[in-house]
Automatic annotation (TrEMBL):
Name under which the protein is recorded: RNA polymerase sigma-70 region 4 domain-containing protein
Any single Pfam family the record assigns to this protein: Sigma70_r4
GO biological process: DNA-templated transcription initiation
Stored Gene3D superfamilies: Winged helix-like DNA-binding domain superfamily/Winged helix DNA-binding domain
Domain spans labelled RNA polymerase sigma-70 region: 19-63
Organism name: Flavobacterium caseinilyticum
GO MF annotation: an example: DNA-binding transcription factor activity
InterPro entries: RNA_pol_sigma70_r4, RNA_pol_sigma_r3/r4-like, WH-like_DNA-bd_sf
Coiled-coil ranges per UniProt: none
Length: 182
């Protein structure tokens, strides 16, 4: 446990080195790392123990304020990154995150506001497809092999994928939607 405390002390002292004077840095180092007493450090500098205690107290406050400032900077950096990400999502510059993708995969097809035809509902029923994830598991090229899947179904499936903005779930979607059914 003492080793962890010593490493933590050293870390905070090193982080604060730029804001500390050489004397303040040396006093903290001697007291926290080398475990010297106030009187031992005072004798090195030729001052009283009370002077060293005051230097330690003011230096400790400086270190504490610097670490708080660094924590705030880190917090605001993360906040800025989140805002940038949200903006890119809203302007559709990037696709939704993996977490959102996982959620999308579990959405039931009948929950979509897309107006499926009776033919497409029957196709999903025959193929036992109930969620977007199950639909995405089937390679797009395979749909042409299913009985009854013609141009009209392909147009409808393409429109659904684009309507739900889930193109990223279907490998080769942009090429597939332009190819005729064979």
């Amino acid at each position: 446990m003492k080793d962890v405390i010593a490493r933590t002390n050293r870390f905070y002292i090193e982080m604060s080195r730029r804001v500390l004077s050489e004397k303040e840095y040396d006093v903290l180092l001697k007291l926290l790392i080398e475990k010297m007493t106030l009187q031992e450090v005072a004798s090195i500098y030729g001052v009283t123990g009370e002077s060293i205690r005051q230097i330690y107290e003011s230096t400790y406050k400086k270190v504490q304020s610097v670490t708080q400032l660094l924590a705030e900077i880190e917090y605001y950096k993360q906040k800025l990154e989140q805002l940038k990400y949200d903006f890119k999502c809203e302007t559709k510059q990037i696709k939704k995150s993996k977490n959102n993708t996982e959620i999308v995969l579990h959405i039931m097809l009948y929950e979509s506001h897309f107006p499926f035809s009776k033919r497409m509902h029957n196709m999903f029923e025959v193929l036992d497809i109930q969620t977007i994830g199950q639909l995405a598991e089937i390679p797009l090229k395979s749909f042409g092999c299913f009985r009854g899947f013609k141009e009209q179904c392909k147009k409808e499936l393409t429109a659904f994928i684009e309507f739900e903005n889930i193109e990223h779930l279907f490998e080769g979607f942009s090429v597939w939607k332009k190819q005729p059914i064979q």
